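Morning F.,

Quick status update on the modeling queue. The single chain you submitted on Monday has been processed. Sequence for confirmation:
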Amino acid sequence: MIQSDSVRKKPVRRRQKSDKPNPVDIHVGARVRLRRTLLGFSQEKLGEAIGLTFQQVQKYERGANRIGASRLHELSAVLDVPVEFFFADLDHVQYPIGSGLSEDPPPRFEGDPLARRETLELVRAYYRITDPAVRRRLFELVKSLGAGDQM
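Structure tokens below.
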């Protein structure tokens, strides 16, 4: 019988837990939020679809919790996008793959006007207009109103 004193265990190397979420986790979470919002899903509805609470979905979207590979695969199926969607627009110059990320996180999606709730609701409402001629006239109206602000 071997005594426990004589058995040496290798030290387990673990990643350091920091106060700030990993910038890639923040980016992936922001992409989950973007797609969820585009589809008109609440955090609760998305959570139910993948067997999580809305609080867990919130943590994923903030980057506070890292999304594992199997969960990311499940999210891609529920949100009807390829897994690559979650990494789209990731700045590979600022955050090269395999380099160990810089200390500065990428810009938050909240600053991106395309990710704002108002924009997403406008796009959803626009595509609910079934008459293509009406949709086109609305498009031209919005373009002309926007052009007036730039003069």
